[in-house]
Specification:
- By secondary structure, the protein is of the alpha+beta class.
- The protein has one domain: Roll (Thiol Ester Dehydrase, Chain A).
- It contains 3 helices and 6 strands.
- It has a 6-stranded antiparallel β-sheet with strand order 1-2-4-5-6-3.
- The longest helix is centred in the middle third of the chain and has 18 residues.
- The chain starts with 9 loop residues before the first helix and ends with a strand.
- Keywords: Hydrolase.
- Belongs to the thioesterase PaaI family.
- GO terms for molecular function: 1,4-dihydroxy-2-naphthoyl-CoA thioesterase activity.
Amino acid sequence: MPIWKKPLSLAAIQQSGANTAISHLGIEITEVGDDFLRGRVPVDHRTKQPFGLLHGGVSVVLAETLGSMGANYASPEGHRVVGLDINANHIRAATSGWVTGTARAVHVGRTTQVWQIDMVNDAGELTCVSRITMAVLAPR
């Protein structure tokens, strides 16, 4: 059973990232499931740190993008979501290809949501695990 409370389509999500940090970094939303969102970021000149590895902050941007979008669509119509806290554990470096993140809700409550985002490289190896806590704001 889907957890989404607002109309959701892959095209709408992709379009919402136009002309934002999401598009600047090359982040693509690739899949919407009943209880998850999946997206990816390229490991290239836009996203690497000076030592040739995917910048850890870019992993956090991917995580926040997926977790925030998930929380938004899992909230009632008219409600907004804003980030309260995010953390990331960097497990393995990525030097090329893509890093793909999958966001799943850990908790969807009336006033808060918690999402976990697991990121893997092209070989399916875990590169980063992140968790974001979102506040759910009622309409004013």
